[in-house]
Amino acid sequence: MPSQKVRLCFLAVCIFSLTHQVAPITVGAFNIQHYGDTKQTEQGHDISRVLSHYDIVLIQEVRDPDHSALNELKNLLGSTAWDYVSSNPVGRTASYKEQYVFFYKKASVRVLGNFQYDDSGKDVFEREPYAVNIQYTSASRGHAVNVVLMGIHTQPDKASDELHALPTAMTAAKAHFPSAAGVIAMGDFNADCSYLNNQEKATLPLFHDAKYRSLIADTVDTTTATTTDCAYDRIVIEGNADIVADSAKVYRFDTALGLNYDSTRAISDHYPVEFRLN
């Protein structure tokens, strides 16, 4: 018979194991629609509630070059627990540029570096993709995994051209971070309805080449308007078996947070898309 001391030690080990299990991290991509000082003042509280659902989340259509709105949003989330990394403003015209911004929980994710794709030679992208190399503890692998998250917001009328070029940008990001298990491109691809028809989509390797995994189905509606049903926002993975991703879906933040239609539309015309890294 084991001694009382041995039984107590065994029980303590079991309790420690149960309370220190590694949980999957939740990753999102959210086009907030013209995010800046005005939107932060008027909808910042609800936006912080949406972002707090994630361990790391890409936000798009950010127009905040002095980071005043972004820092207010970080304070709402909790400045000691959260941080963010931002691209420089990108876009062809001086009058309209956007930033890609990744907000993340410091306890869940380490950001090891960032990468701005250089498209100056061919100039295919209106807003060149921006990537971060992150590290998280994989619940299924039982060790740390590095993966590159790449944000893109295509120019709607050039969605097909930009999505044809996106694999080249993903390859460049993987080369920049060779220790990463792969690249996950996500964001507002404008990959549906009038911006990308089925014939155009059939020519895109992102959706048909076996080396890529597209996590958001064509039948999903990523828009908040009642008059549209379009899978604009997408998540595409290129990587090895260390990337274990599941539970991809649209996050209906209106339902989750009890927001009415007008409040939802005031935040964005898009829902976030999300998945879990295990």
TrEMBL record:
GO terms for molecular function: deoxyribonuclease I activity; DNA binding. This is Deoxyribonuclease. Keywords: Disulfide bond, Endonuclease, Hydrolase, Nuclease, Signal. InterPro entries: DNase_I (IPR016202), DNASE_I_2 (IPR033125), Endo/exonu/phosph_ase_sf (IPR036691), Endo/exonuclease/phosphatase (IPR005135). Residues 1-24 form the signal peptide. Residues 30-239 form the Endonuclease/exonuclease/phosphatase domain. PROSITE patterns: DNASE_I_2. It comes from the Eukaryota. Belongs to the DNase I family. Disulfide bonds join C193-C230. The active site is at E98, H153. GO terms for biological process: DNA catabolic process. It comes from Lymnaea stagnalis. PANTHER family: DEOXYRIBONUCLEASE (PTHR11371), EXTRACELLULAR NUCLEASE (PTHR11371:SF31). One of its GO terms (cellular component) is nucleus.
